[in-house]
Each structure stands twice: as C-alpha cells, then as structure tokens.
Amino acid sequence: MKNNFAMFTKKGNNEVGKLVDAAIAGEWSWEKTSYGLTLIGMVSSTEEATDTAVRELVWDAMITFNPGMDFGVTE
What we know:
Layout lengths: L9 H16 L4 H12 L10 H14 L10
Helix pairs in contact: 1-2, 1-3
C-alpha cells in the first residue's frame, strides 16, 4: 500500500496509512473511515487529516483495493 496521503509529515502519512489498511481489511463504510480521519485530525501534528486532498487520496485507495465494496455512499 502506498503511504502518501498528502499529509505534511511521514508520521502523518503512516497514521493515515494504518487507518486505510484497517478500513480496507475491515470493509469499513466511508462514514467510519471519515470519522477515523477526523480523530487523527484532532491531534495538532496531524490536523490536515481532514483536508480534502487527504480524503480524496484515502477514498481512491479504498476503491482501488476494494472495488466491489459498498462504502455506504449514495449518489
């Protein structure tokens, strides 16, 4: 799995990478994954976890590695 999620630090990218791995393995909904990003973003050193660029890269990873999953998002 890639570990570049547009975070400002390597540590931040690693934290988001762990979240993405757990989300894919656990087949989390987007709502749960987004909440996880919010929790990571509550720490001052990783507050950019809620930025649009980060969320888009997380979403891309989730649909790439688990393309048939229903992420709970309706059109």
